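Handoff note, outgoing to incoming analyst
You'll be picking up this chain. Sequence as last confirmed:
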Amino acid sequence: MFKTPVRRARASGRPVRYAVTGFVMVALSVAAVVAGNFVWNGAPYPSADPDAVAQRLKDRSDELYDGFALPEKYAADSGRVDTGACYYRGLRSIAHIDEARSDVRSFGLDWSVPDVPEATARDAQRRVRHRLVQQGWKLTHEDDRAEATFRQLGFRFENPEGGDQVDVQWNDSTTTLFISVYAPCGQVPDGFVEYGWPEADWQPKEQAAGL
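Most recent structure output, in case you need it:
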């Protein structure tokens, strides 16, 4: 009389153990597929809206030009947002060495201010550096050196929250401030065409307002 309940308990326990084991096997299989995909493809690139990125870089360029606080006679040249190459990640990169992905791009906007004397360039750079530090950007490179034929002044800051960069350079052989703002690689929507991209053009707000 006391053996029957024991047999029933054991009998009713087997399907539960089998179900749990099956669930674990499925979970492990899925995890293995996910891990294998990650190892093969690497970390996925974040999505990027080209128009939004371009606007961000142009707004930042406006802030930099305003931050330089240059006298009116030092006018900035206009610029255009261009895209750069981005490459495969993970083990897949071995099968696509030096092959750029068509669906992933970086973004950069280069512009310059010509005919800036060293003292004026130093003051302008000092103001921009102070502003970037206040905004939480991190200095990643600094250049203040005198070579045999020219003097080089510059720096690079990076935004730790998104990886955007600001690069400012000046040398006395050109007496030109060169500015580059950069956004890291992102996956662009299908059908994105850079040629004729209307959001890519930039000129300082002060100059645009005077047209």
